[in-house]
Amino acid sequence: MNTLYIVSASLLLLWILGALHRNRRAKNRIIRVVEENCTGCGLCVKRCSRRVLEITVDENGKHAVLKKTDKCTACGDCIPKCKFNALEMAERIR
Predict the structure, then answer these.
(1) E strands, 10-92, where?
(2) Angle at 23 (CA atoms; ends 19, 20), nearest 5 degrees
(3) Residues 26 and 89 sit within 8 Å (Cβ to Cβ)
């Protein structure tokens, strides 16, 4: 029974430490869209759990845009989904 408590407490502690690390990284980093490489396929938008990416259509065509920069945690989940290298991690400009 004690083992169950130890494992549960360890998992909770790891979850809390992960959240703190993500918040600290989000203050310094952000996802940047390289519009020249973006084809507007939307795979990154589907993968983004924070819903900060959107597809827009303008005179340059269809491409992804980071709409809600304050909510981006720079988790990087969207980067491996992009097959065209249109997303990269960048320093947050303040």
Answers:
(1) 29-33, 53-58, 61-66, 87-91
(2) 40
(3) no
Domain residue extents for the chain: 2-91
Residue 40, H or E segment: none
Percent over 70 (pLDDT), the chain:
91
Answer whether residue 15 shows pLDDT above 90.
no
Query: CA 34, CA 18: separation in Å to the nearest integer?
Result: 28
- According to CATH, the topology of domain 2-91 is Alpha-Beta Plaits (3.30.70)
Mode of pairing for the β-strands spanning 29-33 and 61-66 = unpaired
- Summarize pLDDT for 41-55 with one digit per residue, the tens: 999 999 988 899 999
Q: What is the DSSP string of 47-59?
A: H-SS--EEEEEET
